[in-house]
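Two quick folds needed for the group meeting slides. Do the first one here.
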Amino acid sequence: MKKLSELEVGKKGVIKEFTDLEMSVKLMEMGCLPGEEIKLERIAPLGDPIAVAVSGYMLSLRKQEASTIILQ
């Protein structure tokens, strides 16, 4: 199992679960649902935030938020 924050640019994963209950509610409202494929598109020059493609659109997340998403 890998965290979204550990994914390399251009790589994909499938969302399995979340480690933070409060953050998971916000992420699910933005389309990060278990079973959804997610792809890391870009990382900002200083490493934070990251841009991911999920549910048909681009989403910008902080590294701390991405670290709560566990991939399978």
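Then this one, please, same format:
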Amino acid sequence: MTAKKTLQFVDRVQSYPPKRAPGERAGDFDEIAQRYVDQVAEDQAGRCSQCGVPYCSVHCPLHNHIPDWLRLTAEGRLQEAYQLSNLTSTMPEICGRICPQDRLCEGNCVIEFSGHGAVTIGSVEKFITDTAWDQGWVEPLQPGPARGQSVAVIGAGPAGLTAAEYMRVAGYDVHVYDRHDRSGGLLTYGIPGFKLEKHIVTRRVERLEAGGIVFHNSFEVGRDATLEQLREKHDAILIATGVYKPRAIKMPGSDAGGVVEALDYLTASNRRGFGDTLADNAATLDAAGKHVVVVGGGDTAMDCVRTAIRQGAASVKCLYRRDRANMPGSQREVANAEEEGVEFVWLSAPKAIEGGDVATAVRAAKMRLGAPDASGRRTPEPEPDGDFTVQADLVIKALGFDAEDLPTLFDAPELGLTRWGTVRTDGQTMMTSLDGVFAAGDIVRGASLVVWAIRDGRDVAEHMHKWLKARVDTGANRKVAA
């Protein structure tokens, strides 16, 4: 049976779900790709070669059982495929949408190496779990037998939500504290709807709430309670705040009007999508009718340029100091942006914002690639006499994120940090310098992918469970948060 349903990569052409026309999709924030119909999903899953060493799974941070649920999908056993997919991931339909599969599972697919085109793993993963939601196969979160111990999770992003789910299933009382008014972190406010429609995130959060996890939104540690006060209230703490401090551009005019941070811009756009009332300065975070320049080459930069197109910008340009081949963002996102009308100005680096108090242009230098640096990437160098100017009413800085100063924010000076400002943890236990305080996700590894945050949330839940169980075995006091 398996031989008939899989190993069809020679006879079946790779086919992703069709995308809406660029002109149509640039007019809204809906997801750009349609969903597979059942037969197409089965046919595409059947292209899997079922190789003995599944490089797709090896290069997936979650080590998802990809060949197995592809085979089940090809055989029409979709509910079983969902159950297997759900074993290793708390958010498979989210990963199916926003993971850079071209750099992870699909980029390491064996049949991609053979020239037949990778199996469309992400699209099948999305199809499986969306179907599971539609068919009612996604079961409610079932808490384990009550342990009488309480866990606090600081941060309601993917790492925090994942750990919260596993800890609740293990029987702990779980409280999630987040400074935003909605849970989800960057899934809610950082990633645009055309990549991840917000009801996809909301239904995951609602499932956790229905399972007894208590969410404390608009709660800032350091303002509403210190870290020490939360430690007094809970048996264990997880810090999963992510990294939100934008990296600065060191150039003249970077503080001029019309120069904004990427996350501020994306948050304002997502809030508009929710129908929120924005602050009085919201017009500065709207690209409508403006000449937009985005500085940066990562996935956040791609989110910004594509958002600006949808807001009706007069023009959108992306300045990146290296060439296309060395761009850190997803090549698929670059292609989507180009289709929608974004112009990429490769090998260019900003030197100054012109216009005085309000930006009118970006002066940039033409670059060339020199010798490789320690990471192996060729170092960009300025071309002699290569300066040029780009018109800009709105300049969006998308150069990545660093960790905030958590010891100061949390009023916890004893919290240990690395030299990069991220939280220092024990490599074996994921515990910080404070007893019973763990950390996971970007606040430990630095700005990274959602799938890595989910992996870290899964791993840290296991370590927290071991530590809490040991406390019971030794007769340590237990706390149950009100």
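Slide caption for protein two: The domain at 2-135 is CATH 1.10.1060.10 (Fumarate Reductase Iron-sulfur Protein; Chain B, domain 2).
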